């Protein structure tokens, strides 16, 4: 049996790639799919200890992510990240993250005696949650506006024609 994939950095765990461990992951996944009551951890000596519901729920989420071939990061919420790590976490460029930090949208602290900044993971999670809420509100407003205007009742061809007409009018104005 091969050894589990080594973490790229502390706290990052990748799904197994070898057949034996993939089969074991699938077996565990099927087991968790059929059991939602609290479980227990069984030691090699047969000693059994109940798992708190929070730990069981976390284990279930980890297995689901790995089953989908996604890596899992386990980190305390108060963990401090470099600006590059924070940008990578949010899926944005480091310069974009710096703009968010300097505008006050994400709190940060500077490392004593240097220009380096550190961002708490919890603050990134808060920012992400806030952005999700804002995006949902914006989408709901767009949908409501489209419904009020009856845009869902208009055939797609009419949109294409309207776009062509608008582009033509803009081109004429630029010539004019």
UniProtKB/TrEMBL annotation:
SUPFAM superfamilies linked to this entry = Putative DNA-binding domain
Q: Which residues form the Helix-turn-helix domain?
A: 81-131
Q: Which GO terms describe its molecular function?
A: DNA binding
- Pfam families, per database record: HTH_17
Q: Which InterPro entries match?
A: DNA-bd_dom_put_sf (IPR009061), HTH_17 (IPR041657), SinI_DNA-bd (IPR010093)
- For this entry, the protein name equals DNA binding domain-containing protein, excisionase family
- Phylogenetic classification of the source organism: Bacteria, Bacillati, Actinomycetota, Actinomycetes, Mycobacteriales
